[in-house]
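Narrative of accomplishments. A recurring question from our advisory board has been how the design workflow behaves on a single, concrete structure rather than in aggregate. To address it, we present the structure tokens for one chain from the evaluation set, followed by the sequence designed for it. No filtering or post-editing was applied between the two.
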């Protein structure tokens, strides 16, 4: 069975986590202690948001649902996290690049996992003609340390695998320090937007942007990654989406959505970055 559907109901992963710890004969208390020692609370797993590789009836049988929005944030905002600034990378293009190649400014998948995707569960990505931006909707607030990003990627991938998916659902991930990580190989369709995964490159930014604001570094890296993807695959600006623009969901959160609206607008940073490119990119 190949991947096709988007799942955004966090209870599905909670149940998957309970089933997994039960089958291993490990108590939830012990699992919580182990996760805490690793620097990641077990409650984080319950906040994972992503896209399912299973058919709708399979998800329904597990008590999950498809396309549910992230609940509104009940916490009042008291302060804005201080942005982290880094020097930008300048993406370079090679006309002969295959889907499996990545530019040097992206951290390769091999840096955070030695495991490959379950390719028999995924469909091939023959071409790319659109890009979709997400948040991972995980709290607590992500740190900027390299090791924390490694753990976060591994956590998301584990949650997605527990759903029966082929791999982590996104193709690239961006952390608060502006690092860009390779996630799922581009030659495989992602699992990030229900009914919209073919030809769709998925990018996730670490954080729950219903509750916090993205750092300056992560926004800068996101614009650079979007500009790179647009140029490499000849994707016009009007085919750069956020998750909520394709499905009824709160993803990528109100704060990142506002930033995406701004950067894509006339005179916005992404618009300026691609303004001198082929006219099709400004369509």
């Amino acid at each position: 069975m190949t991947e096709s559907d988007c799942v955004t109901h966090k209870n599905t992963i909670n149940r998957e986590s309970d089933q997994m710890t039960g089958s291993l004969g490990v108590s939830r208390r012990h699992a919580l202690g182990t996760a805490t020692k690793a620097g990641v609370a077990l409650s984080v797993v319950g906040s994972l948001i992503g896209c399912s590789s299973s058919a709708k009836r399979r998800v329904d049988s597990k008590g999950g649902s498809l396309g549910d929005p992230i609940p509104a944030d009940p916490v009042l905002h008291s302060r804005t996290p201080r942005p982290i600034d880094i020097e930008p990378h300048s993406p370079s293009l090679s006309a002969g690049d295959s889907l499996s190649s990545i530019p040097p400014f992206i951290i390769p998948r091999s840096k955070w996992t030695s495991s490959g995707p379950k390719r028999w569960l995924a469909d091939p990505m023959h071409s790319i003609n659109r890009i979709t931006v997400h948040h991972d909707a995980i709290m607590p607030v992500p740190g900027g340390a390299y090791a924390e990003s490694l753990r976060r990627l591994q956590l998301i991938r584990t949650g997605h695998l527990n759903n029966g998916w082929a791999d982590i659902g996104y193709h690239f991930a961006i952390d608060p320090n502006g690092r860009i990580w390779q996630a799922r190989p581009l030659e495989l369709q992602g699992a990030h937007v229900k009914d919209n995964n073919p030809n769709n490159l998925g990018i996730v930014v670490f954080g729950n942007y219903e509750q916090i604001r993205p750092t300056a570094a992560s926004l800068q890296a996101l614009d650079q990654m979007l500009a790179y993807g647009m140029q490499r695959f000849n994707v016009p600006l009007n085919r750069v989406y956020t998750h909520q623009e394709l499905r009824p969901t709160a993803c990528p959160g109100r704060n990142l959505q506002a930033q995406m609206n701004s950067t894509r607008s006339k005179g916005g940073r992404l618009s300026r970055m691609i303004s001198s490119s082929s006219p099709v990119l400004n369509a």
